[in-house]
Amino acid sequence: MTETTDEQHDEQRRAELARRLAQVEERIAGACAAAGRPREDVTLIVVTKTHPARDVRLLAELGVRHVAENRDQEAAPKAAACAELPLTWHFVGQLQTNKVRSVVTYADMVHSVDRHRLVTALSKAAVRAGRGSRLPELGCLLQVAFDKETGQGDGRGGLAPDAVPELADAVAEAPGLRCAGVMTVAPLEGPLAGKPKEVFARLWDISTRLRATHPAATMISAGMSGDLEEAVTAGATHVRVGTAVLGVRPRLR
Ligand SMILES: *Cc1c(COP(=O)(O)O)cnc(C)c1O
After folding, report:
1. What is the rounded CA–CA span in Å between residue 86 and residue 167?
2. What is the pTM of this model?
3. pLDDT at 169 over 90
């Protein structure tokens, strides 16, 4: 009895996710076409935070290969429950140094690297976990905060644009880590609030300068449910989409 109910629930949810995924796919494809970019240039990362492991499983069955989480407490058990699925796990939330030992065990990419202390902690944990020896190095993206003029991460995370080159060098030199690119979340406050085009254009400039010294740092992680078209137009290689695929998130406690 219960089993039937679960199966029916799964079938309904699968259909809903398939429909929403198709809509997002159409948006990405449309934005690529409009920008004259090949569709393969852009990777969809589905942000599954607050949604159950069962949704991750359904997404994998529907062909999703990249998922993201933003809190270790939630991500660690979910990744463990989905360990056999062919998924790349991205960590996109603010990261405290006391969580890095856990994060490096399941994350392939960390998008929220924003300070030296975090680089040091990630490197130590990554090496201990075999990254750079029996496992690939941990991919690190520098999170740029466009509501900061100078300096390093505070409340919302991210570092000022002018701090990128130095931190990129630190990541590149850190054992177990590789500098994979840049990431941003369009700011909610400050002069660039509500101007995603300008924000993403600036991220592109930062990426261009970064690639001059770190040619392998090609990832540009930008764009969410509300602004993925602007990000694709501005050269994003990875969009991080939650709500548009999974629906409105259950409230966080
Ligand atoms: C939640 C989250 C997203 C996805 O946001 P949606 O608006 O639900 O698409 C993208 N990036 C980060 C860093 C997030 O925390």
Report:
1. 31
2. 0.95
3. yes
The residue type found at 28 is: I
Pocket test for ligand 1, best of 43, 92, 143 (most atoms within 8 A of CB): 92
Q: Which two tokens stand for residue 87?
A: 């998924």
70 lines ligand 1 (CB under 6 A): yes
**Ligand 1 and 67: CB distance under 6 A:** no
Nearest of 97, 107, 101 to residue 129 by alpha carbon: 101
Number of H helices, E strands in the chain: 9, 8
The 10s digit of each residue's pLDDT in 89-122 is 999 999 999 999 999 999 999 999 999 999 999 9
Residues 6+ apart with CB under 8 A from 103: 72, 75, 76, 91, 95, 110, 122, 125
Ligand 1, atom 7: nearest CA belongs to which residue? 225
CB of 115 closer than 6 A to ligand 1? no
Residues ≥6 apart with Cβ < 8 Å to 121: 97, 100
pLDDT at 58 over 70: yes
